[in-house]
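Minutes, methods subgroup
Present: GH (chair), OT, SY

1. OT presented the first of two proteins processed in the latest run. Sequence and C-alpha cells recorded below as shown on screen.
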Amino acid sequence: MTSFINFLKYIILFTFIIVVFSCGTSNQTIIEKPVPKYNNPNLILFLVLRISNDSINNKNIIEVVSHSKSSGKFKPNTDSNPEYENDLSFELFDQGKLISSTIIEHPLFKTVEFTDELNNLTKKIVKLNKKEFFVRLQMTNDSNNVRIFEKLKNGSKTELNNVKL
C-alpha cells in the first residue's frame, strides 16, 4: 500500500513539474495589421426627395429628405430608356466622371386617364404643388455626387440640385 502511495506522489510531482515548466511566458511580438477598407463596387443609393413648386419664381425646387446606402446590385435592365413629356434625370458622378444616368417620370405631373361624356378614353396631365418620392441609383464607393435635372415639355434641361454624398 505504501508503494502505491509513493507511486501516486511521484505521479502528482511529475504532473506538477510539467505544468510549471509548460506555463512559461513567451516573447511573441503581436503585430496588428490595419484592416483594409472594404471596397464594395456594388452599392445602391436610396434617395428620399421632396419636390415643390415655387410659384413666386415659377420654378421647381427639390430637396433631399434623407439618403442611405446599401450593398446590392440591380438586375440588368432590358427595357430601353423611357420617354416622358416631363421627367427628372439623376446623373451619378464618380470623381467628376459621369457613371450612370437614370430618368424617371416627373413626380409633379401625374397622367390621369378617364372616360369623357361620349365614353371616349381621355388622358389629362394634372400638376401637383408638392410631392415626396424616392429613387434608387446604382453606385460605387467612390461616387461623390448626384446632379438632378428637370426637363419639362417643350423646355430645356434645368439643374435643380447637386447632392454631395
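2. SY then presented the second protein from the same run.
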Amino acid sequence: MLRAALPALLIALALTALAPAALAQPSPSPIAQGGSFFTGTFNLANQGGDFVEMEGEEGLEGRRTTFVMDLSGGAFVAQGFALGGLFLGQLQSQDGITVSTFGLGPEVSYFFKLPYQDIYPSIAVAGILSSVTVNQGDFEASENGFAFQASAGATFMLGRQVGVTVEGYYLAERLNQEDDDALQGDTLGVRGGLTIFLF
C-alpha cells in the first residue's frame, strides 16, 4: 500500500515546491513611479607639492586636505524620472586656513532601466545656492553664491534596495563679493557612496 501511494506523494511534493514559483509576481522595480531614493557620496583627498603651495607674501604652505559630501534624494514621478533636492558640503584646510562650503538646491535625476536589474545608470542636474566661509585665526568672512552641478554614473545593486553608486561630476561655482566682483571656478571629479531605494 505504501509503495502504491509513493508516486502520488512525490507528485504532491513536486507541485508544492513549484506552486510558489508559479504564483510569484515579478519583483517591483526600484525606479518605478511612486518610489523614492536617497544617495550619499563622499570624497576625501590630501594634496601636497608645488601644485598646492604658492610662493610670495600670501603663499600657502603644507598639505591641503579636502573633504566633500554630497547628499541627494528624490521621488519618482514617472518610471526612472525623479524630482528632489541636493545638499553639498565641502571642507578645505591648509596652512591654518579653513574654507567651508555648504549648498542646497533642487535636483532632477533620471535612472535608466536595463534588461537586467542589478545595474542602474543615471544622470542628474542640480542648481545650488551656496555659502562659503573662510576662517584664519580670529578672521572670518562669509560670502554667498550659486553653483550648477551635472553628474553621470551608475548604481550597482547589492541587494533588493541598496546599491553602491559611482559617478563623475562637474561643478561650476560663482561666488559674489561685496565689491561686486565675482569669483568663478569649476571642478571635475569622481566620487562614490551608497544609494537606498524605497518602494
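Chair's summary of item 2: Residues 103 and 130 are 4 Å apart (CA to CA).
Next meeting: continue with the remaining queue.
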